[in-house]
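A protein record in our archive is deliberately plain, so that people and models can read it alike. The tokens are whole numbers drawn from a learned vocabulary of local backbone shapes. For reference, a complete record is included directly beneath this paragraph.
>
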Amino acid sequence: MRTFRIGGIHPAENKFAAGKKIKTAAIPKQVVIPLAHYIGTPADPIVKRGDVVMVGQMIGQASGFISANVHSSVSGKVVKMDVQLDASGYKRPAVFIEVEGDEWLETIDRTPDIKRECTLSKQEIVDKIKAAGIVGLGGATFPAHVKLMPPPGKKAEVLIINAVECESYLTCDHQLMLEHAEEILVGVTILMKALEVNRAIIGIENNKKDAIQLFKKLAVNYKGIEVETLKVQYPQGGEKQLIDALLRRQVPSGTIPVEVGAVVQNVATTYAVYEAVQKNKPMIERVMTITGKDAPSPGNYRVRLGTYLSSVVEEAGGIPEGTGKIVGGGPMMGRSLMNLNIPMAKGSSGVVFIREAESIRKPVKNCIRCTKCVTVCPMGLEPYLLMAQSERNMWPEMETNRTMDCIECGSCSYTCPSNRPLLDYIRFGKSTVGGIIRSRTSK
């Protein structure tokens, strides 16, 4: 059974919400829809206070190449344009909407019928995905249409669908696959047409046997689509790791997957593409996981964008007693949340409750040169060295030692016997080096 060849770990899976059917969360009385859900430039607002909007109506227009449209997830009145704290603790521009009913744009097909045939051209597909504001839902939230437009001289050979969901605790992608497999497969064919490729591989880890069986059964009806079973290994959901696992190709440092002929899209993104292209439904909601070892009701919830996480958590039974930390996303790559008064964004994949005893950092000790962090790094870096250079503000040396290649998976910190905050220092150093590189190239 295949997996990627460099580094990796296998944390406890803790998939408590596996097999729990997707529940539709209640529509709140007010939503706060961020205009920056994703990597890139925030969208420009095209509504103002007092405007009445419908579900699916565009309220923010993409303001650059790496940008995405934003749509209203509810119907009601725009009460103000203001800033709102996001999951990372930064203030972002947002649209505040008071909910009045649930009126959808008539152009959106809300029937459950599966529409398999797509007669649109490559460019029409890309335009629809762009108009719908679809971004990568696996974590990076990179605008999906950009991946379908390779740089001049580059050509995709194969489409890879990331159905790995390697993060501990999270099960939203798994459940989406079980409940919407056919729509996802249609979405794969649409992406293949947009990329003009004849081959697609859906990579699924072996802890999702029911999804593997279902997709292998259905994929025989779709030409060019393969389903590959992968060994459970974190962080296999990383683009470069998944490409290595499935194609045995290494993406060179500083380049993108299309350099080795591959384009990777997340399985939830693929479902969103189906809804956008076949149902005219923009990105207004997504499935997320609410879970934890003591969570009263671990589950998978379909939530309208802009809903406060506190509202969804309350619906899932509230914060369990003895919680020491609440993480937005998975425990490995997610971020600790200061509070739950944070709006649901396109990249919100889950809320995980961590017990107090497990959330307390252990005392940091000296590095014992065991090289465990080097062994598990999936990018072949030297985390102990990068941390030391970050501590000493050695930015040129960090750049030379490829800190920008770090995918921030946390494998180094997870495995360190001295409890050293490797990722914290590397992340800070990477951010600083990235700023230096941008200022240098903009001159």
